[in-house]
Amino acid sequence: MKMICNSVFVMTTLSVLFLTGCGSSPKSSDSRLKVLTSTTFLADITQNIAGERVQVDTLLPIGMDPHAYQAAPADVARIAESNLLILNGLDYELFIAPLLDAARAGGEGLVIEATAGLNPRSTERNANGAESGKGAGQEARDPHMWLDPNLVITYVDNIRAGLIEADPDGARIYQANADAYIVRLRELDAWIVEQTGTIPAERRLLVTNHEALGYFAERYGFEIVDTIIASLSSEAGTSAQALAAVIDEIKASGAPAIFLGEVENADLANQIAEETGVKVVDDLYLESLSAGAPAATYIDMMRHNVSRIVDALK
Ligand SMILES: [Zn+2]
108 and 178, same structural domain? Predict the structure, then answer.
């Protein structure tokens, strides 16, 4: 499962499509709308908009890296039984295409992409590590938009629209909840601006394991010095030559730390830290919430990540 960057499937060009087939009604005694999201942070965002009116489940369990996810046979049934499936989109759910094909025969439901309508950044940072040859000449769209809360406002708009389409009677509730949640996202953004503002300009330098913090860096004024893996996916590999280049970049820039998601393998980061003396912060929550603290909700996840970044850089 290494060829993450160059895979395409038809879903990415569609913001909305219908699954058709038989068996339209939810099967459990709970008659509420059944909403399934791909990831845990999407489930939390959706629950905030849906409230008690909707049962929200997540396809991937807590702690699972979507870049590395291998679909399970039971996933087809879970998708078929859902009334609304919410994906991040932008090739983040590379596992979903065959599941959707299979589920199409057994259920009907709406599928939406939370990033629909947003303009993704594409990887061009390969110029930096071009000698690695990885993904050369290919343009991959960066799916990690949720790491900028301003972009999550569009997620909320899309999810609210999907909920209203699947359940028009709940429109007022979804609208009110979405409005309230957007206020909280704006507060979160203001808090991040304030917190990151305490980091001296010359230390606003990020080195990450894979290219996860591009939108975050753009919004809050950080420079991405380099990534250990020159890929938008944590599942890609790297070469000794590319590693040496990362070490040179860290030394030349004076970047104080390397940041990883807690689901990522820290071996390479630790190896680089030994050679450069930088700190390794390996407990960011980038792709999944945690079961309890520190990242039980999307907003908590962002607050935790920002606190860790600010602590390491200021
Ligand atoms: Zn990622």
Answer: yes
